[in-house]
Amino acid sequence: MRTATLALMLLAGGACAGVARPQVQNAPPQAGASMWVEPKDIATRDLYHGPWGQEHAPDPKDVYDLVELKHSGVNLGMTVRDSKGQEWSVKQPYPGNLDSEAPVEVAVSRLLSGIGYHQPPVYYLPAFTLKDDFGRKVVIGGRFRPKLPELKEIGDWDWAQNPFVGSKEYQGLIVALMMFNSTDLKNSNNSLYEKKDGDLVQQWYVARDVGSALGDTQRMAPRKNHIDSFEQMPFILGVNTSGFVEFAYNGWYKNLVENRIKPEDVVWISEQFGRLSDKQMHDAFRAGGYDPDVAARFIARLREKIQQGRSLTLAATRD
Amino acid sequence: MTLIVKNRFLGDRWRSAAVITNLVLIFLCAAPTGAAAQETLPVPDGYNEPQGFIGEPDAITRVAIFADRHLGKGDLNNGLYWDFGKMVPGAGWLAIGPGYRQWFGKDTMLVDGSVAYSWNHYKTAQARMLLPKFAKSRLALGTQVRWVDFGEIDYFGVGPDTLESARTTFGIEATHAVAHATLRPTRWFDIDAEIGLLSPTLKDAGPGPVAAADHPNFMPSQVALKIDTRNFREHPTSGVLLRASAAHFEDRDTGAFTHRRYEGEAAGFVPMFGERVVLGLHGLMMTTPIEDGRVPFYLLPSLGGANSLRSYADYRFHDRSLLLATAELRLAVMTHVDLALFADAGNVAPRMEDLDLDKQSFGAGLRFHTRRLTFARVDVANGAEGWRFLFRLTDPLAFSRVDRRATVVPIP
């Protein structure tokens, strides 16, 4: 029994390591570096096709050549190449479609990009035609992310050490991830991208892998993409005597939120999400392949959280 | 939705027109635009997990999720991993150890190494290299070295009529190096050939005096044909496995133990009621011709234990020929818990024509599983030698022996 217990502890520990507590001691961002850009056109943003638009979307009728299988993480996936030579990273659901991350990643990415956070192009296909050495077959789809020359991933970025620690967009991003009940906040899920637009080169700080969300935040086997859990789990528990917001989050990364988030941070991000229309929210979930009824429940709960976040205005004002 | 509600107050004459108007509006609102919204392909069959007959406690679902995420990807992930639960009968309910694997060159080469230690103090270590993509994946080449140290293995003597009270134990240490080539004309059919060197050493007290000549160095070689259409290897719910093999064990020292072994195996999984009920059938026959040389007792086919006759002890019967038939009916009580009713029958004999199904086990159990993986099971089995309770971390019909490359002695 001791051996079994030790084994389970090792398994659990290996899978779930926390992050260091962020400190506001970093150099200011260099020119061209950003994680968020204030949206001037939020009301007209297309959250179905997303910030990269229809032109970067995968063709559902194309035949995709297998390049290689995915060899990291808990999700199944692969790299494929379409008939035009474009390579795609595909994240597929688990067999059985239990708590699949792929739809979540697309929907959450749409919501984040809708309010101004940088996001890579991600799309969802429920199924696609795969061609490997033994021929073609229709396989389960998932999240498709094209590997674009103008968006080069140059590494990870650290929640604890980056130029934006303490900024409103950084604090707001953490609150947004709390709002989505994101559980897997490890640094390797953050990507630093080099975004080229002609001669202009920007550095994008992106919360890239946002698929572990829309469920609950329990440490052992948190539910993802699970509407019942998402509806049941509280968001904000209150504001403590030090003036920091206490979240219901009980995952492995409490260092990111404990005694760090002020009511005004929550109000700010809630106001941003509040600017999205119902149609935009439905479009975001439709982009992730959600059934409209399930999407409506997720959106209703998100609206409740946004409202709860806005209600902290009074607390912020009192301070 | 608002329009539809208001339509209740319209007269009948307008109702049809209003319904059509609503449908058009719903279509215009809901219909995606652009390339990404083109008609998508239908999701292939077998995508969703069959739901159980009764609701499942949240704790069981979370355990299933945890097991699936950490144990369900098989050989896919690079880096450190835990080799978990995959050892021979007799090792005990738990075997675990660290391993490291790495895929190279867009899946053209796999390098893997692992060690494991079991509840009953069995030890294994293995290293392998696989080149699976020659000739557009029609040819795979590989090599593996496996070392085993099984300290205490039950042994009851040779033949179908041995007594349970005759139990003795022996230990064995063996190293097996093998090179193999696999032809895969199709996704579901392969022809495999392997040749290797096997060096067993008996340890401690054996069943009677053990002479050095009883554990010579062997050069085993084998050809096998396999048809495999199972949907998931570690929790199959549909498909068949058909396998035939011929092996030659050449005694490199004296030649006295040179022998052949032929195997035939068939398994089928029949899903019913949307896979909420699955019937699994399995048949296995092994034989070494009587005219061949002696077969050392630790290389004789054996019957009994968690994967064969479940009411009998591990390795309960040994002889030159073996027959086993198993039927297991699984009912999805919950989404991740099946109730299993099973019957095992078989026997061993010196010659194939003497085989029968006289040894029998009947029982029931629970299977804790995900879509692709049985991660735990409990079985209660009854037979002529009484009751046995089993807890294992593998599926009884996963046939890991089929995929195990280097021969582990003794044969499970």
What do you see in this structure?
- The complex is a heterodimer of chains A (319) and B (412).
- With 319 residues, chain A is α+β, with helices and mostly antiparallel strands.
- Helices cover 29% and strands 22% of the residues of chain A.
- In chain A, helix 2 runs antiparallel to helix 6 and helix 6 (278-287) crosses helix 7 (292-310).
- The radius of gyration of chain A is 20 Å and the shape is globular.
- In chain B, strands 1-2-3-4-5-6-7-8-9-10-11-14-15-16-17-18 form a 16-stranded antiparallel β-sheet. Chain B has a two-stranded antiparallel ribbon with strand order 12-13.
- Chain B has 412 residues and is mostly beta strands.
- Chain B is globular, with a radius of gyration of 26 Å.
- In chain B, a hairpin with a 4-residue loop joins strand 3 and strand 4 (123-134).
- The termini of chain B are far apart.
- Helix content of chain B is 10%, strand content 48%.
- Classes of the chains: A alpha+beta (319), B mainly beta (412).
- Chains A and B meet through helix 1, strand 2, strand 5, strand 6 and helix 6 of A and helix 3 and strand 1 of B.
Q: State the major sheet of chain B.
A: 16 strands, antiparallel
Mean pLDDT of chain A: 90
Q: Which percent bin holds the helix content of chain B?
A: 10-25%
Structural class of chain B: mainly beta
- Globally, the shape of chain B reads globular
- Please give the order of strands in the largest beta sheet of chain A: 2-3-4-6-5
β-strand number of chain A: 11
For the terminal residues of chain A, how far apart are their CA atoms?
53 Å
Strand content of chain B: over 45%
Q: Helix and strand string of chain B, N-terminal first? A: HHHEEEEEEEEEEEEEEEEEEH
Helical content band of chain A: 25-40%
Biggest sheet: strand arrangement of chain B: 1-2-3-4-5-6-7-8-9-10-11-14-15-16-17-18
Instruction: Describe the oligomeric state of these chains in a short phrase.
Output: heterodimer
Query: What characteristic shape of chain A results from the CA principal axes?
Result: globular
Largest sheet of chain A: 5 strands, mixed, barrel
Count of runs of 4 or more consecutive helical residues of chain A: 8
